[in-house]
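Q: How would the structure tokens look for this protein?
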Amino acid sequence: MSIMMQMALKWRKRVMILFDEWKTSTAGTYWAALIGVFLVAFVHQYLDRLLAPSSPLYQINLRSHRESKDGENSDDSQHRSSTLVRVLTTGVFFIRISLAYVSMLNAMTFNGGVFLAIVLGFTTGYIVFHTDLDEL
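A: Here is the predicted structure in token form.
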């Protein structure tokens, strides 16, 4: 007995996304699912921007390091600020990587609309959140 997984994109409105409970059966539920999948990829790009070296989180950390070298802050307050930034960036990274894996699992539905929503979400997020990084 040979069992093969189908590897071609399907273009149907009936699809199961991630969970057995998240099934689409009408055009309305399908489009709502596509919007949700798009937003997951879009938010991933926003979180990726927060982890960039020019992000506000890293700028706060750099500023506290510079002030501590100038003697304006004590080592204790600088350490607390640095620890807080590390905890925040670790949390952002955890959420970002989780969204990336959710997007990968969504793509494994092999639904053409879901695949396009993922790609458009990542692309739109990149255009909105990453195009100004070279200007900083």
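The CA atoms of residues 9 and 104 lie 15 Å apart.

The chain has a mean pLDDT of 85.

Upvote if useful.
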